[in-house]
Amino acid sequence: MKKVTAAALALSLALLSGCSGGSIYANYREIDRLLIIQTIGIDRGADGGVVLSISAGRLGGEPSVCMRAEGPSISEARDLLQNYAPNEVLFYSHINCVVIGEGAAKAGIGKYLDYIQRSVDFRLDTPIFLVKGGNAGDLVMGAAGESRSVTDVLESVKRDVEQSDGGKVYTAAEIAEALSFTGAALVCCVECAAETGADPNAEKSEVTAIPSGCGILMSDALAGYISPQETRGLNFLSGSTGSGTMELSAGKYRATVSMDGAEASLEPVWAEDGSIKFINAAVKLRAGIAEPGYLAPLDENCLTALDGALADEARGWINSALARSKTLSADFAGLGRALELDFPVKYRAMPRSFTDQLPDIIFNVSVTARVGRTYDLENPAGLPGGAK
Amino acid sequence: MSVLDYLKTRAPSKQPGPHPFAPPYKDVPLTAKNLEDIFSDCGDLQKRALDAGLSGVPVTAMWLDGIVSGGDVSEDVLRPLTEKARLGGAKTAEECAETILRGGVYANTAKMRTSAADTADDMTHGWCAVVFDGAGIAVTFEVRTGNTRGIAEPTLEKSVKGAKDSFVETLRINTSLVRRRICTPALKLKNSVIGRKSLTRCAVMYVDGVADPEIVDELTRRLDAIDVDGLTAAGYIEEYICDAPRSPLPQVVHTERPDRFAAQLLNGRVGLIVDGLSFGFLVPASLSEFMRVSQDNSNNFLVSTALSVLRWLALLIGLVLPAFAVAAAMYHQEMIPTKLLLSIIKAKQDVPFSVAVEVTGMLIAFELLQEAGHRLPNPVGGTVSIIGALVVGQSAVDARLVSPLAVIIVAMAGVCGYTMPSQDIGDALRIGRLLLVLSAILAGLFGVAAGLCLMTLYLCSLESFGVNYMSPMSNGSGPGLLRALVRVPKAMNKFRDPDLRTPDRRRQR
User: Which pTM value belongs to this model?
Assistant: First the structure.
């Protein structure tokens, strides 16, 4: 009886799992023939086609392999790329970055997001970058060098954005979700720039990517940009600062401060008809002196002045980003979702959607900042009034 | 029908008679001549005619040289018998035998025998027989030689804080080692003899009131059902008394440590000691019991628990790692972290064989080296293993015959196998590992998952003396799983394992 049970279970495993019928063998690949694609660039081709640029992974000391092909669709472009490398199997399951050119983004990235979601090779948590004022292919092909690939460059950008600015490089899933929920989303922007300083005698300068704020997607197409400062303001509004630094100047006082943290709260004021009249946004910032100005003593007056400067600067960035949001009537900052989580009943009882109300909502942004002395070093040696 | 009932219908009934296997000379009259005939062509048979002062009754002392102590025969048997004053002027053989049994000779153990079969049986076990021809009686004395291996330190189950004695090949020494640790008359010892020709003596040991009487009876019944010529290796016992002899998994715990043996008797298990084997057997067995070491009882409970979890992890890694690596490298490359995958591809570029061939080949090579290490004498065996691991492995990598990945995976799995407290489990692990690798080659992770499901099903279907092989994990309760992994502090461990169905469950207040 036990043997019969075991055989029946084994058979059911084989027949009911979906892995039967030899489909498992479709996944068989000789590992040494794989060419690991780590970054893929998508541009709009002629006649609405797709230009696909790929950068294959490399180990230290090996040049990265880059290819480009144009086809009417991503799938056909992939087939063409495979033809360029007949001895290798292009393996797309390790894509770390997807780069989209500005042209393709303006035409709409919905079909690319749809492809990413449908494809078994792509992962939904793949970060997406937008090339501001350029093509993805130029970045993918141009950033490849002897000592690095575009993947290295973009991973460096990602670290910079996430750790220094407290921002996010939005993934395919997050962008798709935001688009479907609010109709607007942000996508991390980079700008191509010729790399200088690495090797001034090099015949061909390599291209690098520098963070450049975010692109605003509305109805899956690029609708504009927000600057890196505005992006940082939105990060403050979401309670995130990263550990990056800021230059502050208030009269005679100057200093570089490193951000320590932030607290943010949104308090809507509801009108009688259930719509939102005001939103009071309160942000508290904490920072520490990273580098004093060396011209004035680091006394309480200085710190108070720096507090004000930091608050003013942050308030300006936040207001600027919110003004852009109101102008476009695009809730790319995700304020609606935040309010829905905090006030679900009132939110659902609103007569109009949050996005429709957005141009009419008045934002009262108050920012308080506290700049502290790092290590509580009140009178550091070498500064005016400091220890001898 | 319960498992025990089923087994009872399967085994043959116990053989009747004074001798368990009824030898051909069982009805032969007891005379010195007949005993000589029984032991004809036995060069070690020694005899000596005695003058015990009985007229018309020849008295002959007979023994098998080598298994009796010559000095004891001379001092404790022959000398008193030849001192006529000691026999008190007995006139007949019966009177003389009675006098001897009442203390006429010094030997500590003496038995009256009336059949040649019993006398011959005694002689083969190191007794000296004094045969009274014509009267059909003999008195046998235990004068077994003391030339046995001394009690030494355990070689396989070492313990830093544990006892330093281990079982030897002599039954009585072994039973005494256990009795020294459980000084209660409740420690019962049932003797039996196994083997038509070898007549090997065994002792079933258990603590009355603690061990489940059904398990004791079942073990005795299975032992009695063994009908083989000789019992010269552990396999004869294990395969005959276990529930599933065709299973690669061990179903009888064996230990060379008397302290562990005694501890398990107190836990409610039933022990078996066989003359000639330097370890004791314990039933029922379960996988969790094989994963324990006696050191666990000596270490701090946190340390023991951590090491126990580590051993279970090693079991899992040793079983699954090669198969998982093969499946991931052949079918599921997306599961491998990117940098590792790039590194693997680079290392694999110049290797002409597929991952399947590499890993299977390395596993077989590993088994060969291990087997070679076992066959060779100890000092050389270790060297062969080192040469195999370092020289052959490194050379194979340098020659691009295998990739470093295959070597690392197989070596890791091998090291995990070596952490198994029981070598039997380690051996079963090797078979399971190879089967899973083949499953992975055939069907990737689906094959591995299916193989693991079947293995789990098989493990849960196994029983040992009515106790599930996966107990206490299989009883469906969280504490059961914890009991397998965690060594609770002694003061909190108040009850015996419920799966052993001990009549007295409480082990301490």
Answer: 0.79
